[in-house]
Predict the structure.
Amino acid sequence: MSAPEPGRWCVIGAGPSGLAALRHLVAAGLEAECLERADGIGGNWCFGAAGSRVLASTRLISSRRLTEYPDHPMPRGWPAHPDHRQCLEYLRGYAERHGLPGRVRTRCTVEAVEPAGPPGAGWLVRTDGGETTAYAGLVIANGHNHVPRWPAIPGTFTGTLLHAADYKSPTVPVAIAGRRVLVIGGGNSGCDIAVECSRHAARTVLSTRRGYFVVPRLIRGRPADLRSERLLRLGLPVWLRRLVALRSIDREIGLPWRHGLAAPDHRLWETHPVINSALYARIDAGALVPRGDVAAYAGDEVEFADGTREAFDVVICATGYEIALPFIDCRLLGAERAAACPRLFLNLLHPGRDDVAVVGLIQPDSGQWGLTDLQARLVAQMALAARRAPRAAAWLYAIRQRPAPSAPIRYVDSPRHRLEVEHFSYRATLERLIDAFGRRLRREQAAATAPRRRPPVRAGCRRASPGPG
């Protein structure tokens, strides 16, 4: 084991969240390095890498203005929703701007993480090369799209069964042209894949458990999330924002029942938004057939919940991912079981330790990178206070013992929404915490470095003369 370096932090993952964490730790004057298992930085946006889940056709579903880091705007000439190539270029430009590449160790897989001792003693990180290194602190930022979640469907399907994690294009890993394709799952990946397959397959069916509201990327030529952001900034109540949004969506692409689909069993924004401008057009053209939930597999046939059966050549399960941190016992992060979802304050901070955080363990209803920038700023403040400002650290500790602020939206209870946050209120909470914590941190640091003044000598008193020697 290498000797510990005082104050040195380890960041696991060089995707958007890990880069933000590394940038803010370094900016705070702390030593930090990032361990990345892939060949380069970019995480999920490195199309073609083993851990990447993007498609050849992937582009952002949130606008660039609500996705970008606050100190590194995307180029103005880019489209409102950049594609994965532009996203990777942007992330690498962000890393270069802040001098991060030299602090990232690529092709370095973390195999195990454990505490070096009691809270505050740091962490031991073992990598695939057999090296174990002691760090003062740990930021986990490896993402949460690694382990596919498969639907619990009885029976056996004898055709080609894929998860969306492995689907890349209409030709990779399997040729879709002329085949009968079923896509299971009504989230963004499922809808994108179904629309793409409907342009190549002989027949494409989209199976969903419930009805969903669909939001177009653009409303009257402007990104839909920017229009929604304006209503949030005006402070309108949820019911009024919902009414305005539904009318705008209806004018742009129509609501589900305008296209023969069942009405959702929830209100707008109570599930993660489905952003798609082509889905309804493909359904209206008969190129994409919506169906209900799948009940069972039976050879090359699929039985649906309504009792009907249909034969398919390919089934693609776009059913999300398990939350998995395979290198750490998640009970160390507040979870009830070793492999369960961590239970953290704001999905970010351990309730009792100042030497660990998980950045990016959220699924916002808008862009994420600006939120992870705020998360990283708070983590850097926490790391700094733990070393230099004990009273500020104690204040943050007390804050973490309180219940987290309740979200203005109550989401449908499903695994899909375990990490869901309403971006506007979550961002405001982080900004308030950063401002209040930062003031305490600066005051305490200033007091510690201010020169001590000698007490004034009272009138009529003489200083004692120094003794001999």
Summary: The CA atoms of residues 359 and 375 lie 6 Å apart. Residues 9-146+322-449 form a domain with the FAD/NAD(P)-binding domain fold (CATH 3.50.50.60). Residues 423-449 form the longest helix (27 residues).
